[in-house]
Amino acid sequence: PMGVCPSAIMPLLKDNFTGVLRPWARPEVLTCTSWGAPIIWDGTFDPDVAQQEARRQNLTIGLTVFAIGRYLEKYLARFLESAEQHFMVGQRVVYYVFTERPEAVPHVTLGTDRWLRVEHVTREPRWQDVSMARMRTLHEALGGRLGREAHFVFCMDVDQHFSSAFGPETLADLVAQLHAWHYHWPRWFLPYERDTRSEAALSSEQGDFYYHAAVFGGSVAALRGLTAHCARSQLRDRARGLEARWHDESHLNKFFWLHKPAKVLSPEFCWAPAIGWRSEIRHPRLLWAPKEYKVVRN
Ligand code: 2GW
Ligand code: MN
Question: Which residues line the pocket of ligand 1, CB cutoff 6 A?
Answer without folding.
Answer: 65-69, 71, 127, 130-131, 157-159, 212-214, 246-249, 296-297
